[in-house]
Specification:
With 738 residues, this protein is an alpha/beta fold. The chain contains 34 helices and 22 strands. It has a six-stranded mixed sheet with strand order 10-11-21-16-17-20, sandwiched between helices. Strands 3-5-2-6-7 form a five-stranded parallel sheet, with helices on both faces. A five-stranded parallel sheet has the order 15-12-13-14-22. The radius of gyration is 28 Å and the shape is globular.
């Protein structure tokens, strides 16, 4: 068997002789002793008995990177090709491949890998090692597998320049590109950490990235969360000792002090080279890379996260690109976010979050998820949680509160039709702001939540955009849209773009700003409101004022919101995480109905965001105009953004307009915009009428099927009263879990 153990002479020295030797060395050569100790300690504290295992395609730089990492850690280095395979076979790898052929080579290579026994070493695998399952299981037992992820085009250029001809599997009729793509499935199966390696990144830089990645992997303490209302200077030792991680904030939803969770050390930043390495990637691949950096593997391992992402964005989306970008006119591009099962951008988070939630929650407790919706969230969250495995449905249930008379007929029909055995919709005789405020108050009512836990063994959780996990998938599609413009040759990487988003609860806008912080060159975020334009007033004047304001029902109901929850996270950022100030501002809003930003903070805000609003009349006019000139139908929310973009953009760079929903969800308003005189009140009839227009995009594939299932069906309706809502919650828990 092939053995390499880290040489550890100190283990062979007795304690007394060690003390004597150390004392002599310290006295005679203190600097030398310090250097030796520093080298020994850094190697041992990072590796211990574990190995760092470098994996990736041929040409990824595993051998060179491994040597540099080994030098930095002062530990043994094993190159599987040179030190194991060629030594074992007594011939070169290319000769062995030619001698035994592809199938037999993989088997012989795997057997050789099974003989390797090492501790505290850096091991560079061959490009084909991951294709042998038994060999990889063996080598992974005592190691951290680091995937050197290099773009396929870069690998092909490297191999071509080196004239390499020993690629396992290369044969007539099978291209090098095909082999590299085929192997990715095996790399994804085995890695613990991914390191992005661009085309021109020096091996020394890659080695440092490997070490940083291993340190991150071993220390989840670095990625904790705090509340937007936490006072850093006044935190007690008990609060500091009770650290919260990703899995905690996913299940808890809202902080106990009423604030929202944010990562204590901020979001990860990608280099320009790392972003450019994702230009050729698919949407799913981009999502995996971005979310791996935002979710620590101690919370969700990379392999499990990949499985969840592929489940979320696979067959559930009708477009293979998931979030395609389409040229509209001039410098305007539409980011189509409506190809999911319920036809809105909410599907991006809510096809993913239920699986994250199910993985993170403890098995010893049942969970009831509370959701408030102004329209699109309802059907999306019901659909997402209904797709969980049956065993998860038994311990996870959901209740969706929506304004009974404040959503479109089709949205309401969707929410009713999407009810399942573990998911229900409840109409509330009020507006969205009441529903959202009620949920926040329920979460902070420790008497009620404690009673549910003790009496029924059930905890409450949130799936609204106040839940941190809801924001992460939205960062992905903003980043992906930019990369698609680069891929299509519209811009080169580094060129700025503006983003215009119809905005109500500020989550989508915040996600775009987060994408900017992570390295996507977004110049301005444009906030588009309807006649409920409290956000526009705030961004322009710095005064958030709800006094005397009443919610106005509009043709764009998803942004009929006056209290924008995620604004709190943004203000926490621009106040340099001043939880005391954030608490003061939002307490004042709650108690007095208004607050005002300091002049310097308003200046910071206006560097990032500009805002405008659009009337219903202008919204419908925009829908008619765009259809007349392009044959494309905008939904009412996208039309709001189009009107505001037309008014505020300076046309010096491309502008990406978030198309947040499919127009068929708002058929009455669309038919009115298209100037149809007779509008049937039946939602199904409205969709059939719209389909006769042969417009772009076609009628949404999922809406017709959903509306055919149950018609209007049944749902519960309750008064706008906290005690009534809490009674509903208790009854639902009794019926489902007891």
């Amino acid at each position: 068997m092939f053995h390499i153990f880290q040489y550890q002479p100190l283990r062979l020295i007795t304690q007394n002789s060690l003390s004597s030797m150390c004392l002599k060395l310290i006295l005679s050569r203190p600097v030398a002793f310090a250097q030796i100790w520093k080298s020994w300690f850094s190697s041992h504290s990072l590796l211990g008995k574990k190995n760092i295992i470098l994996m990736g395609p041929p040409g990824a730089g595993k051998t060179t990177t491994g040597r540099i990492v080994g030098q930095k850690l002062d530990c043994p280095v094993i190159d599987i090709d040179d030190d194991v395979l060629e030594t074992t076979w007594n011939m070169s790898v290319s000769e062995k491949l030619q001698d035994v052929g592809y199938e037999e080579f993989l088997e012989e290579e795997g057997k050789a890998l099974l003989t390797v026994s090492a501790s505290g070493s850096v091991i560079s695998l061959s490009g084909s090692n991951p294709m042998h399952a038994a060999g990889m299981r063996h080598i992974k037992k005592n190691g951290i597998v680091v995937y050197l992820d290099v773009p396929t085009t870069v690998i092909m250029n490297r191999l071509k320049s080196k004239g390499m001809d020993r690629i396992v599997g290369l044969s007539p009729g099978i291209s090098l590109k095909d082999i590299l793509q085929f192997r990715k499935q095996f790399y994804k199966r085995w890695f613990d950490i991914r390191v992005l390696c661009g085309g021109d990144v020096a091996a020394e830089v890659v080695a440092e990235k490997v070490l940083d990645a291993v340190k991150r992997y071993q220390d989840s303490e670095l990625e904790t969360f705090i509340s937007t209302r936490s006072f850093k200077s006044g935190r007690s030792m008990e609060e500091d000792s009770h650290k919260l991680y990703f899995s905690d904030v996913v299940t808890q939803g809202l902080a106990l002090d009423g604030g929202l969770f944010v990562p204590e050390r901020g979001l990860p930043e990608f280099t320009a080279e790392e972003w450019q390495g994702l230009i050729e990637a698919t949407y799913v691949e981009r999502a995996q890379v971005i979310l791996e950096r935002c979710i620590h593997p101690a919370d969700i391992p990379a392999s499990k996260l990949a499985e969840i992402i592929e489940t979320a964005y696979g067959e559930n989306f009708s477009c293979s690109k998931v979030a395609p970008i389409r040229h509209l006119a001039g410098n305007q591009f539409l980011l189509e976010l409506f190809h999911g099962p319920t036809a809105s951008f909410k599907d991006f988070a809510l096809q993913l979050v239920p699986h994250l939630f199910a993985y993170c929650i403890p098995r010893s407790c049942n969970y009831l998820i509370l959701v408030a919706t102004s329209g699109d969230t309802g059907s999306a969250v019901l659909d997402g949680f209904s797709r969980l495995h049956d065993t998860d449905k038994q311990r996870i249930a959901l209740v969706n509160f929506f304004p009974e008379d404040g959503v479109s007929p089709i949205q309401k029909s969707q929410m009713i039709a999407c009810q399942k055995e573990n998911a229900w919709s409840v109409g509330v005789k009020s507006d969205f702001d009441f529903c959202q405020t009620a949920i926040k108050q329920i979460f902070t009512n420790s008497d009620f939540t404690g009673f549910l836990t003790v009496e029924y063994g059930t905890a409450l959780a949130a799936a609204n955009s106040i839940n941190w996990a809801r924001l992460l998938p939205q960062i992905v599609y903003h980043a992906s849209a930019y990369l698609d413009l680069v891929h299509q040759g519209i811009i080169s990487f580094g060129s700025p773009v503006d983003i215009c988003i119809p905005t109500g609860n500020f989550g989508n806008m915040l996600a775009a700003f987060y994408a900017k912080m992570m390295g996507i060159p977004i110049r301005k975020c444009i906030c588009a409101s309807n006649e409920n334009n409290v956000l526009t007033d705030f961004i322009r004047r710095g005064v958030y004022d709800l006094r005397g304001r009443k919610l106005i029902s509009s043709f764009s109901p998803a942004v009929d919101i006056l209290k924008s929850s995620n604004l709190e996270r943004y203000l926490h950022l621009i106040t340099n995480e001043d939880g005391q100030l954030v608490t003061q501002l939002f307490n004042q809003l709650e108690n007095q109905g208004h607050f005002q930003l300091q002049k310097d903070l308003l200046g910071k805000l206006q560097q990032d965001i500009v805002a405008g609003w659009c009337s219903d009349e202008d919204c419908l006019a925009a829908i008619h105009s765009v259809y007349s000139t392009t044959g494309y139908i905008l939904d009412t929310h996208t039309a709001v953004a189009k009107v505001v973009a037309d008014r505020l953009q300076d046309r010096t760079c491309p502008i990406i307009i978030s198309s947040t929903a499919h127009y068929s969800k708002f058929a009455p308003a669309i038919l009115r915009a298209l100037r149809i005189a007779e509008i049937n009140q039946n939602p199904l009839s409205q969709l059939h009428l719209l389909s006769s227009y042969s417009a772009l995009p076609p009628i949404h594939w999922g809406l017709l099927e959903t509306l055919k299932k149950t018609g209007n069906g049944d749902h519960q309706v309750c008064a706008a009263d906290m005690s009534v809502l809490m009674s509903h919650i208790e009854t639902l828990i009794q019926n489902h879990f007891m």
